[in-house]
Amino acid sequence: MGRRGDLYPGRPNDKKECFVLTWHDRTPQQIAGQFSSDLERGLTDEAAARVLSEVGENKLQGKPPKTLLQRFAAQLKDTMVIILIIAAVISTVLAVMEGHGDFLEPAVILFIVILNAVLGVFQESKAEKVLDALKDMSTPHARVVRSGREQIISSAELVPGDILVLEAGDYVPADARLIESSSLQCEESALTGESVPAQKDAAATVEERAPLGDRVNMVYSGCSVTYGRAKAIVTSTGMSSQIGQIAAILDSQQDTATPLQHKLEKMGKTLGLVALGVCAVIFIIGLIGGTPIKEIFMTAISLAVAAIPEGLPAIVTIVLAVGVSKMVQKNALIRRLPAVETLGSASVICSDKTGTLTQNRMTVTACWVPRRQERADGEDLLDEVGAPDTPAEVVSLLKLATLCCDGKVLEQPDGSLQHIGDPTETAIVAAALQAGEKQEQLNADYPRMFDLPFDSDRKLMTTVNMIDGRLHVIVKGAFDILAPRCSGQIETARKANDQMAQNALRVLAVAHKVIEVLPPEDESASLEQDLSLIGLIGMIDPPRQEAKDAIATCKKAGIRPIMITGDHVVTASAIASQMGILQEGQKAITGAQLQEMSDEQLAATIGDYSVYARVTPQDKIRIVKAWQQKGQIVAMTGDGVNDAPALKAADIGCAMGITGTDVAKGAADMVLTDDNFATIVVAVREGRGIFQNIVKSVKFLLSCNIGEIFTVLASMLAGFGAPLSAIQLLWVNLVTDGLPALALGMDAPGSDVMDDPPRPKDKGIFDGPMWLHIVLQGLMLAALTVTSYVLGRYVFAENSVAEGRTMAFLVLALSQMFHIFGARTRRSIFKSNPFANRYLNLAVLASIALILAVALIPPVAGIFGMVHLPLAAWGCVLGLSVLPVPIVEIAKLFSRNK
């Protein structure tokens, strides 16, 4: 976007009227004049500094970051947190009304609320810092001409009017109009989604209304040069670039709540209604029984406190935060805490092919060379490349093909290879290197005397090299283009070409001839005639073995892996079949075929397709939404700007940390720092384990809270009054329940966590049988507690409410400590190690110490209304507290037999 009368169009200035200013329909001279630049000498250093101060750095700008106060306030919007705050307010009002000034209850409640909010803010800030570090690591440099000198600067310092120098392997740091180019090709998949590099031409004339993919005289920020070289004048930087405009659109999108957020929100509302209902029932019972209004009100409040698991928000946040920390160590950066659980719910994973499922590096795997006719007819046509006994004829083919390549492969100190240039050429160079032939030595021994660079019209590349004192012409290109110009075993070669194509290999043919002298330049086309075919080279981007194993794990877990790629449908189908994604009865479909289908047709048939090839960004969104209409939870991977809308639309967006653009990372819920599909499956396993732990924690907390509710209700109905005070109930909830429930969330994922199918999207945290278990366990705890209250009040004392409450408090608290070990697993505790979770062991010991401190330390016991118990009462307390272990084990045995 530009502004009328602005020297540097694209500079933010809302006061001026905007109009569309295009660059591709202007000449470099016109653009240089507008920016007061020089096409040869570029901007002066002083002018560049002045423009930088005016237009700002060449960086993408997101939404203004939330302040610490805003982040903190956002953590307080949860329904359960609001209920806790209301409970704290009511408790404070009661303390004031009664005049005793005991504000311990509201203070503890508010402490839990604040702790929950602080933890949430801390984890979100930590994730953002790691993401910022990733951005800084990927900040590229740019080679520019300023004041007539070529120099390297940070890409953030680029300004409109700078002269860029680009070569193969360079990152394009800003939108720019080409001044001159030589065989230039750019990888623009980040913007267009097209996997094949785009041909560029500085001299091309482009119409004003030409779409982005047809602007062949422009290069764009976020793309890279795969072949050739060029000079260009920068036209747009930062948010004014094409990639910046997409980023601005994405900033306006709203984040959606995750399944866990919905489920906890729903459960919080349910518990709030239960608390209100309990208060109403207590009022009615108390009024009928003639209990004073004030006492009824206090009892109702204490029961409302018992109905709400005050520690749940903190427990869920801490469990999620621990999971996030584990996942960072496993190459998965979670940007939003609840997204961890969403991964555990994922039922469909839509993955890009290149780099995620494959190695993102073309590799030569097979060659064909002319042989004796008997061999060609009677045996396999192809020779495997990389085998220890690679035939000499194949090595010779790779040597000649390497001489006809401009791509380079550099050996790094750590033994790895850096590929620079066209991926098909670097694959050939790497294969020759593997066979013991170094490109530098070959070029030195057989110098290039002349070349005809590849262009889109001829689809061939030719070099003339001096070999053993004679001029050898080497030509490489597609078999269909080169075959009519060649003699030799063409039909046999055609069979080999078809065999490679069926195996999804990209095939390059290599031909050769010897000439006496170089022809005149205007007759150079004759070099590509009357050739001898010397072989075919087949290459592919091979699948990652770990991704193949991960796909098998997905299927075992009931997760449907889907491949979405811009590659050719034949290649995509072959890779998908090798990896187990495309199976019998499933289909592959192209973007063109998708566009002929209505949204209704796609939604009806979406389950038939496992491979989507040659798709557009719009197609990706349609695919995600079609699966979501089926009730599936969709994870989507992507790295380009074109992937960002689909990442945003998916239930869980996974961006690539290495190859991913900043826009893609900003739209995603998770960043894969190793760009590996297997990492997604690791994250799914961790997510499922985290959800299991949350379910165990919530189940334990609710069974305890329901036990407390039944305890008070049963005692009131029996005419015994409230068996526990409000502060005793609160202490049990926050200490006895809270610490062990938190430690329960630290359990390692079970070995069978990936054996079950994903949870349906509309399924709550608990199903019907689970609720029945919770209620029955609550009744068990209530029966034990009421029994201890009656024994303490009437058996071990003469109608002493204080002694009854003391025994009830101890049995309720200690029985939960024994009960939690049975709640760890669905299996019998005698068939598993009940003490495997050391955090749980420590939490239980700490809780028991706090329970005994409340009962035995006189000043503290006075605050909680506790009294001294005789030894026999302590024996009864211990006996009743241990009973949940055998009762639950008998119930498990009955359940398994049933």
Describe this structure in words.
Helix 13 crosses helix 14. Among the domains are: 2-34 and 161-232, Calcium-transporting ATPase, cytoplasmic transduction domain A (Distorted Sandwich), CATH 2.70.150; 333-359 and 544-682, HAD superfamily/HAD-like (Rossmann fold, 3-Layer(aba) Sandwich); 363-537, Calcium-transporting ATPase, cytoplasmic domain N, CATH 3.40.1110.10. The protein has 32 helices and 27 strands. The model is unreliable at 1-20 and 372-378 (pLDDT under 50).
List keywords for this structure.
898 residues, alpha+beta, Calcium-transporting ATPase, cytoplasmic transduction domain A, Rossmann fold, Calcium-transporting ATPase, cytoplasmic domain N, eight-stranded mixed beta sheet, 32 helices
Topology record:
Layout: E1 2-3, E2 18-19, H1 28-34, H2 45-55, H3 68-74, H4 79-98, H5 104-137, E3 141-146, E4 149-154, E5 163-167, E6 175-187, H6 189-192, E7 198-199, E8 218-219, E9 224-236, H7 242-251, H8 259-289, H9 293-307, H10 312-329, E10 332-334, H11 339-345, E11 348-351, E12 363-368, H12 373-378, E13 383-384, H13 392-403, E14 408-411, E15 417-420, H14 423-434, H15 439-445, E16 448-452, E17 460-467, E18 470-477, H16 479-482, E19 486-487, H17 490-502, E20 506-515, E21 531-540, H18 545-556, E22 560-565, H19 569-579, E23 587-590, H20 591-595, H21 599-605, E24 609-613, H22 617-629, E25 634-638, H23 644-649, E26 652-656, H24 662-667, E27 670-672, H25 677-717, H26 726-744, H27 768-795, H28 801-823, H29 838-856, H30 858-863, H31 871-882, H32 884-897
Parallel strand pairs: 11-22, 11-25, 19-21, 22-24, 23-24, 25-26, 26-27
Antiparallel strand pairs: 1-2, 3-4, 3-5, 5-9, 6-7, 6-8, 6-9, 10-27, 12-13, 12-21, 14-15, 16-17, 17-18, 18-20, 20-21
